[in-house]
Amino acid sequence: MRSGLSQTLSGGLLAGIGALSILAFAASSPAFAASNCIKGDRKPPYKVGWANIYSVPTWMKQTEGTITKEVADLKKQGVVKDLIITDAQGNANTQIQQIQSMIDSNLDAIVVDAGSSTALDRVISDACDKGIAVVNFDSLVDTDKLTAKLNTDSNEWGRQAAQWMVDRLGGKGKIIIMNGPAGVSVSDDRRKGAQPVLDANKGIQVLTETNTEYNVAPAQEAMTSLLFSNPDIDGVLSLGGALSAGALLAFDRQGHDPVPITGENYRQFLELWKKEGVKGWATMQPNWLGALAVYTAVQALNGKDVPAYVKVPLPVIDDSNIGSYLDRSKDFPADGYIYSDFDTALFDKLLAQK
Amino acid sequence: MSTLSSREPLFWAVQRQRNRGVIGLFVVVIAFLALYAYLFPGLFTLGGFSKFTQNWFPLALVAMAQTLLMMMGGISLAIGPLVSLGAVIAATVMGTAFGVTGAIVAVLLAGLVVGGITGAIVSYLRLPAIIVTLAGSFIIGGIALIILPRPGGVIPAGFSDFLAGHTPAAFGLLVVIVILWKLYLATPLGLGIYAAGDNPIGAFRSGVAVNRVRIATYALSGLLTTLAGLFVAAQTGSGDPVIGTPFTLNSIAAAVLGGVSFLGGRGTMRGALAGSLLLSVMINVMFFLGFPPVAQYIAQGLIIVGAVAIPQFTGRWRRS
């Protein structure tokens, strides 16, 4: 009660101070912009840069698809003029160079999927100093000197997956954990998120773990050899979609009955899940984060106050709604990700959260 | 007196002969630089020049490091991981009591030691450099991941701003390194690089300490590589245990573009530097021309083939 009251009080106080400072600011500068980096001197139509780390993976191609679609919509409204796309071919040093070129050519907004969580910090803060709206999504940078960061929570990803597995197995059973590559932050974070759940449920025994690239073939190979040494498995806690597809293929080839499995919205996994009649759970890194990034940058440039960090809730796929995803599968590449629907209303809702 | 006057023309004759193979490349590089300057006139401002040369600098260093080895008939597939190692040592040591100076010493020592050990294994155990450095790349990459499992560490802002701020300090450093290389080439160890690469047995019989030359060259190459890592750490303000990976292939590409032979004994540092500059300026030119990514892949391949082919054609044309 007390803490609630004091929160209300301090909240009211803060709001008061905020209102005062806004008044003061508005009086001194008519072009008031609330978002980070925005100086209010850039006018539509804007030139937008999309600094991709690597354009070849299917996830990236689909993400680029959502970006170009969003830009096409914004072009129709007359707020965006150009979209300039770069591909650093996996090289963080090249990405620095390309973002520097975007600064040099005075783009108004840069959306970036980072090749390294630290390497881009300085060039991004240089862009911010120039009043460029920088929005970072998916693979995030450490610096906070940018307009906004958008992402789902990888820890939460792992936690929810582990919790589903524990519930499914009734708190008791032998599982194998499949991870992405070691030393990659997404992979590490998902695994870390799962740990507290595993610690709290001692009945779950982790037989072994794999670390492979997020590809079907190496995951299948790893699972095949594990099935030889550990035929007695109750569940597969897979922390990546292609990994889950590889695991199910390995079970299938070995003639082993599939066990409950977690994963991601990878089309092949969803199809195998349905076909094999497995008990499954999946979430996703929505490809429309790219579209949301462009939308956020434009909103910020238009003077709207966008949050510095937008935590995008994880959409969940389970046995109850997998059908609705598979119904749309023909619109997605065979090795792609079937993402949830998105529209401006959803984006506005996400940007309204504080 | 007479020896001096006869030595001078010989020096220039040698230089002319060495330049012959790379003149086509120089023309291509200058054309690209001119095009870039036309597309981005900001290149002529201090800030623009500084940023551009900073993005080229680490590639220039690793191209030199690779060229040193290739001229001697060696090669290193561990360049990338060694760049990463330099970066993570810099980012972890700078935050400790040893400070910036301690970190610079540690980074340079690491390069000398790793390079020296590689050189010793290649020379005394007579194992192929490609195998030794392939194995080395896994070991070094692993050590980098142990030192700093995730990107992070600390680089003081002052150090970053000094090396990679809005001044051409990196370019100045490169000029110094090139002058040092010229001086080194005048020493017995430096002269031995070409000799040991061209004909190791002949060089040995003529009194070149081939093994010592090899170890010194590998150590120097390691030094240049970790220095690139130090710079990348300064440029990015942090350490990243896998940031160097693409440098392995790019260092070889720059050297080969620059006319350095895989077989040893042939090639020039100026060629390798021009090769690395071409790889770097190409990225910016394609950006300002507005090439879509798919076209960039193709254009990149065509430019590289072109840069290698043009000198061949001009050479044939000159002979006929």
UniProtKB/TrEMBL annotation, chain A:
What InterPro entries has UniProt attached to this entry? Peripla_BP_I (IPR028082), SBP_2_dom (IPR025997)
Q: Which UniProt keywords apply?
A: Signal
Q: Subcellular location, in the record's words?
A: Cell envelope
Q: What is the lineage of its organism?
A: Bacteria, Pseudomonadati, Pseudomonadota, Alphaproteobacteria, Hyphomicrobiales
Organism listed in the record: Faunimonas pinastri
Q: Which residues constitute the signal peptide according to the record?
A: 1-33
State if Signal is listed as a keyword. yes
Protein name per UniProt: Monosaccharide ABC transporter substrate-binding protein, CUT2 family
Periplasmic binding protein domain residues: 52-305
State where it is primarily located: other
For this record, the Gene Ontology CC terms, alphabetical, are: cell envelope
One Gene Ontology term of the molecular function aspect: carbohydrate binding
From TrEMBL, chain B:
A Pfam family that this protein carries is BPD_transp_2
Q: Which GO terms describe its molecular function?
A: transmembrane transporter activity
Query: GO cellular component annotations, sorted alphabetically?
Result: plasma membrane
Q: Which UniProt keywords apply?
A: Cell inner membrane, Cell membrane, Membrane, Transmembrane, Transmembrane helix, Transport
The protein's superkingdom reads: Bacteria
Q: Where in the cell is it found?
A: Cell membrane
InterPro entries the record matches: ABC_transp_permease
TM ranges are 20-44, 56-79, 85-115, 127-149, 169-194, 215-235, 247-265, 272-291, 297-315
**Topology versus the membrane, per the UniProt entry?**
Multi-pass membrane protein
Give a short account of what the protein does: Part of the ABC transporter complex LsrABCD involved in autoinducer 2 (AI-2) import. Probably responsible for the translocation of the substrate across the membrane.
Q: How does it assemble?
A: The complex is composed of two ATP-binding proteins (LsrA), two transmembrane proteins (LsrC and LsrD) and a solute-binding protein (LsrB).
What is this protein's record name?
Answer: Autoinducer 2 import system permease protein LsrD
* Organism name: Faunimonas pinastri
